C-alpha cells in the first residue's frame, strides 16, 4: 500500500526497482538513487590497528588470528551478520572444496548481529578445511582485516545492495558476488565478477580468482556520491 500511495518511492538499484514496481502496481512514482559511500572513512578505518573488543568472539585465539592476518597465506573474507540469508554454509562448503587443492588459503567470516554464530562455528569445525576457517563475531572495526585479504566473497541468498562490496573495492580488494538482485546492478555497471547463485558458483569464483580473472572494480566514489546527491536534491 505504501509503495502505491506515496508520491515518491526511492530504491537503491535498478533491479530492486523492478521488484518494487511488481509489488506496487505502478512505476510513475519510483526513482532509483544509489547509496552514497563513505569511502574516506573506510580508508581511514583500514589504517587503524586490528583490535578485538571485550565482547568479540572467535573460534581461534586472538594471537593466532593476528598471525594469519599478518602472514603470507592467501586470505578470502566475507563480512555479514550471522543469519540464513548470508549463505555462510554454502560458502564454507565451497571453500572446503577449494582448500583441498589450495591448502595455503584461509577463509575469514566476520559478523555482528544474527543468531547463527554458534552454528557457523560448528559448520567450520565439521568442515574438512576447519583448521583454515576463522569465524569472528562482534568486531567493531573489520576494515584493517579486510584490507589484508586478497578476495572478498558475497555469498548472500539476497541483498538490498551489499555495501560491504563497496568497502572492499575501496580498499583495493577484488570482489565476487552471487548473481542476485541488489549486488547485480552495481557489479554489472562497474565490471564486477558475478557467479552462479550456488555453492558451485562460489567455488567457480574462487578458481577464477586463482587464475587472475577477478579484477578490482575501482569505482570513482567521489563522482558516484556527487551524482547520487544531485538526484536526491532534484527529487526533493
Describe this structure in words.
The protein has helices at 2-5, 14-24, 39-46, 62-70, 88-99, 117-126, 143-147, 163-170, 183-189, 199-210, 221-235; strands spanning 9-11, 30-32, 57-58, 74-79, 105-111, 133-137, 151-154, 175-178, 193-195. With 236 residues, it is an alpha/beta fold. Helix 5 (88-99) crosses helix 10. The protein is globular, with a radius of gyration of 19 Å. The model has no long low-confidence stretch (mean pLDDT 95).
Mean pLDDT: 95
In DSSP terms, counting alpha (H) and pi (I) runs of 4 or more, how many helices?
Answer: 11
User: What is the count of β-strands?
Assistant: 9
Give the low-pLDDT segments: none
List keywords for this structure.
alpha/beta; two-stranded parallel ribbon; 11 helices; 9 strands
Topology:
Blueprint: H1 2-5, E1 9-11, H2 14-24, E2 30-32, H3 39-46, E3 57-58, H4 62-70, E4 74-79, H5 88-99, E5 105-111, H6 117-126, E6 133-137, H7 143-147, E7 151-154, H8 163-170, E8 175-178, H9 183-189, E9 193-195, H10 199-210, H11 221-235
Parallel strand pairs: 1-2, 4-5, 4-7, 5-6, 7-8, 8-9
Antiparallel strand pairs: 3-6
Helix pairs in contact: 5-10
Amino acid at each position: 500500500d505504501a509503495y502505491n500511495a506515496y508520491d515518491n518511492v526511492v530504491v537503491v538499484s535498478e533491479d530492486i526497482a523492478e521488484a518494487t514496481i511488481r509489488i506496487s502496481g505502478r512505476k510513475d512514482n519510483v526513482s532509483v538513487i544509489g547509496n552514497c559511500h563513505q569511502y574516506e572513512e573506510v580508508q581511514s578505518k583500514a589504517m587503524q590497528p586490528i583490535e578485538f573488543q571485550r565482547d568479540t568472539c572467535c573460534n581461534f585465539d586472538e594471537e593466532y588470528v593476528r598471525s594469519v592476518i599478518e602472514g603470507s597465506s592467501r586470505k578470502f573474507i566475507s563480512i555479514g551478520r550471522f543469519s540464513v540469508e548470508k549463505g555462510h554454509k554454502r560458502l564454507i562448503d565451497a571453500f572446503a572444496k577449494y582448500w583441498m587443492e589450495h591448502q595455503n588459503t584461509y577463509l575469514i567470516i566476520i559478523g555482528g548481529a544474527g543468531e547463527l554464530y554458534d552454528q557457523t562455528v560448528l559448520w567450520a569445525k565439521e568442515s574438512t578445511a576447519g583448521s583454515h576457517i576463522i569465524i569472528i563475531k562482534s568486531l567493531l572495526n573489520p576494515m584493517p582485516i579486510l584490507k589484508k585479504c586478497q578476495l572478498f566473497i558475497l555469498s548472500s541468498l539476497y541483498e538490498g545492495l551489499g555495501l560491504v562490496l563497496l568497502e572492499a573495492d575501496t580498499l583495493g580488494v577484488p570482489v565476487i558476488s552471487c548473481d542476485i538482485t541488489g549486488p547485480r546492478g552495481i557489479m554489472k555497471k562497474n565490471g564486477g565478477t558475478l557467479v552462479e547463485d550456488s555453492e558451485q558458483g562460489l567455488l567457480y569464483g574462487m578458481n577464477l580468482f586463482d587464475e587472475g580473472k577477478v579484477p578490482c572494480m575501482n569505482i570513482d566514489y567521489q563522482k558516484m556520491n556527487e551524482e547520487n546527491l544531485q538526484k536526491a536534491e532534484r527529487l526533493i
